[in-house]
Amino acid sequence: MKALLIALAAFSGTLALAEDSVPSVVDHATPERMIEALKASRGVLPPVPDVHPKRILSNAEAVVPPQCYTQTEARYNPCYVCHQDPINGRENVLGDGDLQRDYAFSDLGMTNHWKNLFEDRSERVAAMTDEEILAYIRQDNYSELPGRLREVDFDGWIPDLADLQLGDAAFDAHGFARDGSGWVAFNYKPLPSTFWPTNGSTDDVMIRLPLAYRTLSDGSPSLDVYRSNLAILEAQIKGLDSISCLPVDEKALAVDLDGNGTLGTATRITRLDSWTGAAAGEFIDTFLYPKGTEFLHTVRYVGIDDTGKIGVSTRMKEVRYLRKARAANKPVYARRYQEEGYEKDAGNLPDYLGLGNKGIDNKSGWAVQGFIENAEGRLRALTFEENFSCMSCHNAIGSTIDKTFAFPRKIDGSAGWGYINLKGMPDAPSKGERTGEIATYLARVGGGSEFRNNPEMEDRWFSRGRVDHQKLASAKDVYDLITPSRERALALNKAYRCIVQDQDFINGKDATISPPKNVYDAIDNDKTPTLPDDRVFSYNLLLEWPESS
User: Fold this and answer.
1) Residue 17 lies in a domain
2) How far is it, in rounded angstroms, from Cα 127 to Cα 51?
């Protein structure tokens, strides 16, 4: 293998001048040399080091995200959204709720390696014009990606959803992709608070079930099968005993889905113990996706239209892809969590298997793969280390449901099928709570972001350092609550553009303009102030959507 890499290196000088047909090689690779190579590269495949990627991780504890270094001052708790004790019936039994009140970093992890948090970009942001950044985020960098990947014989997943750069125009009114690819968009509430537009990014998420879940038993495509299986899956992931669905012809399936004793048009499903169509008989259980389930997640700039409305941008920061390559039952997952706990107790650092162009194995059946902007803004495949940090959310925390966030947070039932739209979306409470989730988060965190570095949110929703519920009552919907002003959106877009130019994503991707004040550069597990018991909270990723939603 090394001989091949050395041979490839001989060609790297000429390849750097044009679209790379093979990844160039970085000799004597260090993180700094890799970043310089990424800045110079123009290819759809990133440069590779001349050794195994794991050996040059600049941050072997990248599963600890920047937000974990926030100063809580024994009062402010942004930790509860991720770190939770197990909820009965779910596969996720990690049980890391204690991390709300205690630091348990490895020796390496006690140092904050996310150096981009401490960089002041204010002068660079000021030098970038509004017209320049608007023109940039309105450019399409997605539609060329599949062709570029095919040109280099890329053997991982190649984006196969046409016109996704157009956002909702790529889907029909119920979220089904117009290109017939089988992808389905759904409307969900962004997780507090990294994916709030006010903190620098917009996004969308699509799901696709395997072919058997979209066809009749004879293999012929069936929208009725697909609609019913999507609804059944949603009910299982949320632990519901019934769910509304898009209209399904029960006669076509020969199944009484609504349990009314006749075969007609079902708009609610009560029979949830089996899939329909060709997937009937496949394994099914609560809080688990079937093998072969795919998610497509695009992270975008904060789009601004000519009227000032905030939405998704045409340009994509990242294209993320998850595929459940292996399935298991809950006792198997429980054993894996136990083994992971043993590894941590033994002092071993996180270790994940790279799958080449297919991404990283998260140890729980999911392959995680992605693409990110190069210095010019064209999308390229992630490096191993850039992908490694994804494990912080898709494996290493206790609040997820089968390692996912967005789908469990979909608006319940038929009303939630369609492209993400924050307009008209209520601030639904977390399951088991009464106050809106966003209002609750603001109160618990003491600001509009984990770092408490969002003065616009504080001006809007706080008075004298406390959440002002009278102000919150003036918000019409989630859009009003978490979208930024035009001025803030432009500034955050410019800040992230600086990170793209620097290509130092391994040092952090938070779109900060000036260094947040409430962040530690190092933590002492024994001495750094922790949260008292009365500032530790239970949290459920699921939401209490009103019936009308």
Assistant:
1) no
2) 39
